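Bench notes, afternoon.
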Amino acid sequence: KNRPTTMADTTFADLEARGWCSAEVASPYVRFFEHLTAQCVPRMLASCDVVGDSTSSSLTRVLDVATGHGVVAIAAAAKGGQVTAVDFSEPFLDMAKQSAQSKGLNNIKFVQADAQKLPFDDASFDVVLCNFGVLHLGEPDAFFAEASRCLAPGGKLAFTVWVAPPKTVPFEITLRSVRECGNADVPLPQGPSFFKYADAASVASAMEAVGLEPTVLAEEVPQTMQLDRAEDLFELFATGTVRTRALLRAQTDDARRAIAARMAEEVRTAGLNLPCPACLSVAVKKS
């Protein structure tokens, strides 16, 4: 019973796909992260000039990649954009469709597809958005190349990731608790560094490699994670994420209980409202 879950013969892409395509992960993700990940969306849309309202005459062609439960796509559609929303996860797409329908939006098209192999023509969008999706991709550079290909000249790509700890307090508490109460070096599928694109130099290099000119490099956007209980921080990472869920599942039962107790103790000290800023980058397709 005290034996941890193993990840033998699982690739990073398999881990991510299995996790996000499961309602067991998708539902708690929405429950815990919806309010948080929506906080940077106004800044993200403004950075790409997606402005106005649903009655505006704007025909901006917007592609929202890794749309999840549709927060960005719905916000862009409400601004009058002609939106295509992509995700490989059927549970997330179902939630996004239901949310769009409940808001009476008919200017969003939902497509199940891989962010790294987008099924769209060259130069077919004015804006490509990706809110906290890049860090779940096995080949983020492939997505950046696809985003560049799909953008019309002068079009903009905007994407967000998490600022690296310790500024993102929920991640700092969780990773420190694992280090101190468990085993941070359990064998997990190797993927790109989770906080790689919180680094301005890494973003600049990635953008320039695909013909995009950075205009905003790793701008910090304030956000706050709001918890109802101290125990919720462990629960959200243990149920509503993929990488960190795998890390926690790979601990022994005793270590997992100790990690959960430490995290709750730290939240009681820090408070239920934890700073968790986003990191926004924007780049323009060269003419």
